[in-house]
Specification:
Helix content of chain A: 55-70%
Strand order of the largest sheet of chain A: 1-2
Radius of gyration of chain B: 24 Å
Number of domains of chain A: 2
Number of strands of chain B: 19
Largest interface: A-B, 28 and 28 residues
Order of helices and strands of chain A: HHHHHEEH
Largest sheet of chain B: 8 strands, mixed
CATH superfamily of the largest domain in chain B: FAD/NAD(P)-binding domain
Oligomer: heterodimer
Strand content of chain A: 5-15%
Helix content of chain B: 10-25%
CATH architecture of the largest domain in chain B: 3-Layer(bba) Sandwich
Structural class of chain A: mainly alpha
Number of domains of chain B: 2
Number of helices of chain B: 11
Shape of chain A: elongated
Order of helices and strands of chain B: EEHEHEEHHEHEEEEHEEEHEHEEEHEHEH
Number of helices of chain A: 6
Distance between the termini of chain B: 26 Å
Largest sheet of chain A: 2 strands, antiparallel
CATH topology of the largest domain in chain B: FAD/NAD(P)-binding domain
Structural class of chain B: alpha/beta
CATH class of the largest domain in chain B: Alpha Beta
C-alpha cells in the first residue's frame, strides 16, 4: 500500500466524524429554530404587546374573524387600549375570569366567550 | 248496568241523570273519576272515542292552523280512551314556585295561589303516572353514584331532574286508558260511555247553571246527560271549542263573557339543536343523555334556570337536555383551543354535544283558538288556531343558554355555542311538545280568567274545567304531573261541594 493510499484511508474516519457532527448540529438547530423558522410570520402591529398573551395566533385569527362578522364597528386602537388596561398586572386567564364574574361576554359565530378573549382575537384578526 | 257502555246503544232521545258528568276520558278525566271512586257520587264519564284509535273519530279534531308553523290540530292529540296519554313521552317534573308568581316582567302572569297550594297532590299524582317515589331534584343525592353532575360556576342555571312515567309491566309510559280501565270498571257508581261526543253545553234559562249535555255518536244516535255538576276534561283545544260552540243561551259561548275562552293558547316550543355544549374533559354522567333507572324510578338530568335567576333577569322557564355527540367545525376547534389554552385547561379529551330544549312562552291573548264556519261530522264548528311566538320568547331562552355558557367557563368545565340567532333560524328548528295549555285560564277575576281558583267556570255554578287548559302561565315542565295534581285537588273540592 502506498503512502498516499494510507493517508486517504486515515482521512475517511475524520471526514465521517465531521459529517456526523455537522448532522447533529443541523438537527439541533432545526429542533430549536425550526418552529420559529417555519411558523407563520406576522407583520408587526401596534398591538403586538397584547397579542403576545394569546396562546395560539392562528386560532385567534380564525376566532377573531368570526367575532368581527357580527360587529358593525370595531375600533382596534380603542380595543387595544381597553385590553392593555385590563391586562395590566393580570394574566389573560385572570382577565377572562374577571369577565365571567362580571358577565362580560361576547359571541363569535355563536361561541360564548369572555369578552377580553374575543376582543384579543379580533385584534389578532385585524393585525393579520 | 255494565261499567263501560257503547253510547251507540243508548236509547235515542233519552236522558241520563247523574251527580257528576266528566267529559273526556284522558288522564284528567280518568284520574278525576278514580279520585272520586269512594265519594258515593253517581258519575258518568263520556269519552268520544273507543278503546282503540279510529280514523273517523280522530277526524273530528281536524281544524286549521295559521301563523307560526304548528302541528295540525288533527295530529297533535288523540281522540280515544286514554287521550293524549296514548302518545305521551312520560316526562314528569313539578312546576317551579316562580311559575305561580305574578311577575311584572311577564305579562298576564300569576296563578291564584302559590305552588304550596297544590304540593299535597304531587305525591298522589306521581302515583297515578307510576313514576316511582317523588324525588326530582333530590335525585342528585344518589345519581352521584353514576358520576358527578356537570360542574357549573355560581349563577343562574342548575342541574335539575325529570322523572318518567312507566306503566307497570311495560316499557312505555302509563297509558291511562289501558292502565286504569279495570279500576274504572270496578267503580260501581261510574258509567263510562264510549263513542259519546258532547256536542253542546246547555245552560238553564238563567245562564248561570248548566242544565244538560247534548251527546251525539258518529252513528247518528243522540241523547242527553243531565248532571248536577259537570267537569270538562277535554284538553286545551277541545275545551274552548265546546265552550265557544255552546252559544245558544250566551251568544259568546259559555264562560266567555269577557272574551277570554280560547285565548292564551300555549304549547312548549322544543326547537332542536339549540346549542353545542363542549366539555373540556369529555366526562359526562350517563343521566344527562339517557334515562337511568335507580331507587325505583327512572330519571334524567337537564339544565334549568333557577327561580332567583328568573326573577332577577326576567326570563321564563326553560329546560335544556344534553343530546347526541357532535364534531366541531374549524371555528369550533379554534374557539375550543384558544379558550381552553388561555384558561390553562387541557382540552385534549374534549367532547361536544347538542342541547335540546323546552321553552315557556309568554302568555299572549292573540295566540288563540276561534270557531270557523266549517263543521265536523257531528255538526260542531271546527277550530282555527292563530299560532304566534314572539322574538322575545327566543331571546329570553337564548339569554338563559348564554348564562349556562358563562357558568361552564367560570367553572373551567366547558363552553357553549348558540346555534340560532335570527327568527328564521329558530323557526327552521321549531317543534312542539303537544302540551295544550291556557285556553280556559285560571284567575280569581272573571275579567282575567275563565275559571276561578277551584277551576269552576266563572258565572256558571256547576261547570268546571280540569286539565292544562286552566294554566294561566305554563312553566317549562311537562304539564301532565301538574295538571293531575290540580285534578286531584279539584276532586277534593268537589267532594266538599257534594257533602
Amino acid at each position: 500500500m502506498s503512502a498516499a493510499a494510507r493517508a486517504s484511508i486515515a482521512r475517511r474516519p475524520l471526514l465521517k466524524g465531521l459529517l456526523a457532527a455537522a448532522g447533529v448540529a443541523a438537527a439541533a438547530i432545526a429542533a430549536v429554530e425550526g418552529p420559529r423558522l417555519f411558523a407563520p410570520r406576522y407583520a408587526p402591529s401596534p398591538f403586538d404587546d397584547v397579542l403576545a398573551q394569546l396562546p395560539d395566533r392562528e386560532n385567534a385569527i380564525r376566532l377573531g374573524a368570526a367575532f368581527l362578522t357580527s360587529v358593525k364597528h370595531f375600533d382596534a386602537a380603542a380595543t387595544a387600549g381597553l385590553l392593555r388596561a385590563r391586562l395590566r398586572g393580570h394574566s389573560l386567564a385572570a382577565t377572562m375570569n374577571d369577565d365571567l364574574l362580571e358577565a362580560r361576554l361576547s359571541e363569535a359565530r355563536g361561541w360564548v366567550l369572555p369578552e377580553s378573549l374575543a376582543l384579543l382575537c379580533a385584534l389578532a384578526a385585524r393585525a393579520g | 248496568m255494565p261499567a263501560f257502555i257503547d253510547a251507540r246503544t243508548v236509547p235515542a232521545g233519552s236522558t241520563i241523570q247523574t251527580d257528576l258528568a266528566i267529559v273526556g276520558g284522558g288522564p284528567a278525566g280518568i284520574s278525576l273519576a278514580l279520585a272520586l271512586r269512594d265519594s258515593g257520587l253517581r258519575m258518568v264519564l263520556l269519552e268520544s272515542g273507543g278503546l282503540r284509535f279510529d280514523a273517523a273519530t280522530q277526524s273530528l279534531y281536524a281544524g286549521r292552523e295559521t301563523g307560526v308553523p304548528y302541528i295540525p290540530l288533527v295530529a297533535t292529540r288523540l281522540r280515544y280512551f286514554g287521550g293524549c296519554s296514548n302518545h305521551w313521552g312520560g316526562w314528569c317534573r313539578p312546576l317551579d314556585p316562580v311559575d305561580f308568581e305574578a311577575r311584572p316582567w311577564f305579562a298576564h302572569s300569576g296563578w291564584p295561589f302559590a305552588r304550596r297550594e297544590i304540593e299535597p297532590w304531587f305525591a298522589p299524582a306521581q302515583a297515578l303516572v307510576e313514576a316511582g317515589p317523588l324525588i326530582y331534584d333530590d335525585a342528585e343525592k344518589w345519581s352521584r353514584a353514576l358520576g358527578p353532575p356537570i360542574r357549573l360556576g355560581s349563577g343562574g342555571l342548575y342541574t335539575t331532574y325529570f322523572q318518567f312515567s312507566k306503566q307497570r309491566d311495560s316499557v312505555l309510559p302509563t297509558h291511562f286508558g289501558e292502565r286504569y280501565a279495570g279500576d274504572l270498571k270496578r267503580i260501581a257508581a261510574l258509567t263510562t260511555l264510549l263513542h259519546a261526543n258532547v256536542t253542546g253545553l246547555k245552560l238553564a234559562g238563567n245562564a248561570s247553571t248548566l242544565d244538560r249535555l247534548e251527546v251525539a255518536t258518529l252513528s247518528g244516535n243522540r241523547f242527553r246527560v243531565k248532571p248536577k255538576l259537570a267537569v270538562l276534561a277535554t284538553g286545551g283545544i277541545e275545551t274552548p271549542r265546546l265552550l265557544l260552540a255552546s252559544n245558544d243561551v250566551m251568544t259568546t259561548g259559555v264562560g266567555n263573557a269577557h272574551d277570554l275562552v280560547g285565548r292564551f293558547f300555549a304549547d312548549h316550543p322544543i326547537p332542536g339543536q339549540t346549542a353545542t355544549l363542549v366539555l373540556f374533559d369529555g366526562r359526562i354522567a350517563p343521566y344527562y343523555q339517557l334515562i337511568q333507572s335507580a331507587n325505583g324510578t327512572n330519571f334524567r338530568a337537564a339544565f334549568a334556570p333557577g327561580d332567583s335567576f328568573r326573577r332577577a333577569r326576567g326570563v321564563p322557564g326553560s329546560l335544556a337536555t344534553v343530546e347526541g355527540e357532535v364534531q366541531l367545525d374549524a371555528t369550533g376547534q379554534a374557539a375550543l383551543a384558544e379558550t381552553a389554552g388561555a384558561l390553562g385547561i387541557d382540552a385534549a379529551s374534549m367532547r361536544a354535544f347538542t342541547l335540546g330544549c323546552g321553552m315557556e312562552l309568554e302568555p299572549d291573548p292573540e295566540r288563540r283558538l276561534t270557531l270557523t264556519s266549517e263543521r265536523d261530522a257531528l255538526g260542531m264548528p271546527r277550530l282555527k288556531l292563530d299560532m304566534r311566538i314572539s322574538d322575545d320568547d327566543f331571546a329570553h331562552y337564548r339569554n338563559t343558554l348564554k348564562e349556562l355558557g358563562r357558568q361552564l367557563l367560570a367553572a373551567g368545565t366547558g363552553m357553549i355555542r348558540l346555534l340560532h340567532s335570527t327568527r328564521a333560524e329558530w323557526l327552521s328548528a321549531i317543534d312542539w311538545g303537544n302540551h295544550h295549555m291556557g285556553t280556559a285560564r285560571m284567575h280569581d277575576d272573571p275579567r282575567q280568567g275563565v275559571v276561578d281558583a277551584n277551576s269552576k267556570v266563572h258565572g256558571v255554578t256547576n261547570l268546571y274545567v280540569a286539565g292544562s287548559a286552566v294554566f294561566p302561565t305554563y312553566g317549562a315542565s311537562n304539564p301532565t304531573l301538574n295538571l293531575l295534581a290540580l285534578v286531584l285537588r279539584l276532586a277534593d273540592h268537589l267532594k266538599g261541594r257534594f257533602r
